[in-house]
Amino acid sequence: MPALPVAATPTHCPYCALQCAMTLTPASAPALGPTTVPAPDAVPAVPVVEGRAFPTNRGGLCTKGWTSPTLLGSPDRITAPLIRGADGAFREAGWDEALDLVADRLRETRRLHGADAVGVFGGGGLTNEKAYLLGKFARLALGTSRIDYNGRFCMSSAAAAGTRAFGIDRGLPFPVEHLDAAETVLLLGTNVAETMPPFIGHLTGAQAAGGLIVVDPRRTATVRLTEDGQGMHVQPTPGSDLVLLLGLIHIVIAERLWDEAYVAERTTGFSELRRSVSVWWPERVASETGVPVPQLREVARRLASGRGTYILTGRGVEQHVDGTDTATAAINLSLLLGLPGSRHSGYGTLTGQGNGQGGREHGQKADQLPGYRKIADPEARRHVAAVWGVDPAIIPGPGLPAVQLLQSLGQPDGIRAFLVHGSNVVVSAPNAARVAAGLAALDFLVVCDFFLSETAALADVVLPVTQWAEEEGTITSLEGRVLRRRRAVSAPPGVRDELWVLHELADRLDAPSTFHTDPEAVFEELRLASEGGIADYSGIDYALLDAGEAAFWPYPRGSVGTPRLFAQSFGHPDGLARIVAVAPTPPAEPLNVDGGLTLITGRLLEHYQSGAQTRRVPELAAAQPHARLQLHPATAARLGIDDDAVVEVVNGRGIVRCRARLSVDIRPDTVFLPFHFPADESANVLTLDAVDPISGMPEFKKSAVLVRPVLETVDARATLEVAL
Amino acid sequence: MRVVLIGYGPVGSRFVDEMLPSVRDGSVELTVIGAETTDAYNRVLVAELAVGHTDLESIIVADRGGAAASGVRVLTGTTAVAIDTAAAQVVLDTGERVGYDRLVLATGARANIPTLDGVAKPQRDLTHLEKYGPALVGRDDDLPTGITVLRDLADAERIARTVRAGGRIVVLGAGVLGLELALAATQAGAQACVVHHGDIPMPRNLDRGGGRVLQAALRRAGVSVVEHSRAEAVSFHEHETGDRSFDALITADGKQIRGDLLVLSCGVGARTELATLAGLQTAAGIVVDADLRSWSDPAISAIGDCAHVVPRTAEAAELAVLPGAPTGLIGSGWRQAAWLAAQLRAEAAGLLADPAAPAERDALVMLKAEGIDVVAIGDVSAEPWDPQYADDLDDPRGPQRVAQWADPENGSYAKLITRSGVLTAFVCVGMPRTAAELTLLYERGAELPADRSVLLRFDGPDYTPALDSDVFAPGATVCWCNGVTVAHIADSAACGNTTVACIGKDTRAGTGCGGCKGRIADLLVHLEATGGTTSAAV
């Protein structure tokens, strides 16, 4: 391992996919500049963070980024492997004992129940190297097909839609800063002002041109950026996004706003699309979405108004059982308008997790091999098997996507032993109570994490691993740019890198091929494995990245990479984009019946994903200590709920108990919960594990719920105290 | 199972789409008989086609090629002239007989021809049908030159010629279709005059208040409206060639309303002649039970504009006049098509189908016109101060209540009729967002907020919380990236941080995207000017 730097280490933020550039400086070293801000709650030993000039964040960080070093000094850190004893309590153990136990139990499970009785669950926060090696480990060391990851809950719908339409799924097929020159930006279901704040610096051009259009059932912080003539807020009822998009497409066609030459030269499928939207005239769309006709027309006309138009989707429209089709409708709209591949316009999806892009490219997906290759494709299997030095026949076939994988936990013929890496599924997966029951029914659960997350707390063995600033590797950001993550501090003694953990386990399991522990060596192998694939990294190496090269994939050997995709052709063999006609389907459960409301979930500025990290940052936890239910005052009045009253949010899957926050910033038929909180405040006990038939995305964004006040008698208060 | 569909319009085409899985798996052999040679189009948009706001390709709904490729036998340009119910066969104009196990009639409706001196009006009762036979079946009525209805593509083309020439169109009838045409034609540069005998436009859908506001809106949009005028006759130009064409519409009180084209927009009537000839019971349409099967022959179903759904009960069978009528709305036709197809698919596969038939609902009427928003549903005649009647008070859904908003000067009007807080009818004019939200609430049967005015505010400029209007309120967020409020910055400034850079260092405001640095500077100036107080303290 290289010696630790004594001066500043350039790296990137541990959290979201914007991957803001930052510099970490050892606490003892002098601060670098006038804008250096110490983390107020930081334990002295942690490094000082500073925003670093970079095209995406331009030196800025959000409150999560500024406080991120606190995690490095957290007293909650696990510093030795934990093994659950016969008494049900954890005890600290040595690595050899823990790894021997894990290997024995995995081998035993495989012997008794078959290779597919061992499952692996990865994460979109893992580096490219870890994601790659985890996929290889599952296929070669465990021989299981049962691997998937939490990106299934995040990017799968947009990825499926992008692949179907363009033949390539790179979240933003253009550098982020190209948005600066746009005059119109349509944001569908994304609250970037809270989820990746420095991103909004790239929206100021559209705001100045009056062209920032935000579609959201809530009046979010992002929506506020449209006020005072800077754009428009479109506020459809939850679950009507697809109809809204079909309505916009209808208007674009009826008013002849579409780019005929582009559609003729660069796409196929237009006539099907035209027929499919002929039934979605504006008034019908208004009656199903709640969006008035004049606004529908205004949006359509604005999108078609000329230079510099981008359409961007987020989880709000993608996390549905029709999420792939909804993203497809957004793509269809952008293709009609001639945006993708033009010099000044485009379509993109805003990737959420830190390595949500790279994490979906290198083999931790059930149906995938490195380089965004299909695991069922014989040619792909031959290529990867050759790099691994194994017989293609020993690589298992496609496994199960995340929701089905989790549903199979503890079931007959399902998963008996489960490895979880970088994911807190009991908080982040839909229908969380069912997930917890599944984990409890396992024979053996291993969790690799740096804190005792709610999922780790249920494990039989917890293996403590390194955090971002303690490790080397690469991350691929939301714009498809490969970035270097660098080590700035040493990990606590007793903590190991996941690459080493996988190497040790592979060794104990007599796995074929090699499992490098050095990140650069793993990346060198990844390069070869990805070569010729869709996400081709073969021309990228650490030296290139360390020299500051802006490396956007595909980056075949000998090329200079691809900052902007689709200029000449799309990724399908004929070079054309596919317009795929889509139609709405009924929701997975009836909504807004018998006084019920529609629950939508999302994120807060201060927290990241399941909150396993940010809830441990005192400053962030103090700002947002608990989940609060956002609901409209008129709805609250009907239900007899006052601001800050304790309420129960209920459906057939579970109950959330929290306080109410009355706000006119939400539709009266809709309530909102953040999903960062565990136990009684866990929004995902209410969400549905019905999935999109194409992507496997669960239905996070519209759940039927009832909301009721909790009478604050002495008894109820006591119960609440216990519950909270 | 052999299924035959007569009628390949938008409802028939939806039925075909829904049947395709069973056609592909071979469990259903589907034959489609359509009189028109063009692919089915969305008739709702024919007025827009007529004025050139859309084109034919953009309103096509049917995928004839796709259906044929899936194995459907598609016979377009073919008319069914008779149904031999005894033999379970359909007789075509080619002489071919097509056998069926289940027959679905989606023959739709044709425009009504009002009684006008100078315009012939064919009858289609059993006597006439038996006398003239197939000549009257499946055909539309020939109208004199210069007079048209608005139903199909030929009608649209007739109107389009007048619109392109910037001519004058006289529309007889102030229903939705007539008004949409008049508005769209005016917008497209033609002149339009709507003639109707009532007091207000859309009298079947609107109350007086909504009608008055709409009337004013029509005039503002440049449409002339002649109300209280019963049309009696038409007069014609006699051309030297011996042909004649429309000249003027003559009303009972002697007005002569001249124009280049007369569009008769007086409602539609179901096309029932095939059913009538086959001896099936008809009323306002082909009489079918809640499961869409004919009262007279369970092998035959009807959907869409030709179907008159009356649940078959002993009481209903005794009635001289059956209640209800086809809604005339495409939405209910599509619901029926999808439901019936699901039944037949299940039947063909030997499965049990969902027994719940699609609920018949009141017709939601939306005027399609740019700049004029009208949505209405149900009986909106009740007024806020109407006396409460005993039978109404006893209604299990609770007594009827009426809330109303009227601002004629600014063209907005709403009336909400509720029982137990749930909308049973409403009309909304000139308030597009409110209308859209009311529609959702109506469809869901959701309880309205006790303060009904919440619903009216959606279109208001103040549909934003008060907090925001004051950017210096203590709780107002200044820096989104770091969640820093006015109060945080005021506290920091009070501690001596009086520059944007110092504030950034202390609070992190402005250290994300940097977009708020200007607002921080403004705030510092404001704090300086007010001696460090934020708004709430002023």
UniProtKB/TrEMBL annotation, chain A:
GO terms for cellular component: membrane. CDD domains: MopB_CT_Fdh-Nap-like. Keywords: 4Fe-4S, Iron, Iron-sulfur, Metal-binding. Pfam families: Molybdop_Fe4S4, Molybdopterin, Molydop_binding. Residues 6-76 form the 4Fe-4S Mo/W bis-MGD-type domain. It comes from the Bacteria. One of its GO terms (molecular function) is NADH dehydrogenase activity. GO terms for biological process: respiratory electron transport chain. InterPro entries: Asp_de-COase-like_dom_sf (IPR009010), MoPterin_dinucl-bd_dom (IPR006657), Mopterin_OxRdtase (IPR006656), Mopterin_OxRdtase_4Fe-4S_dom (IPR006963), Mopterin_OxRdtase_prok_CS (IPR006655), Prok_molybdopt-oxidoreductase (IPR050123). This is Nitrite reductase.
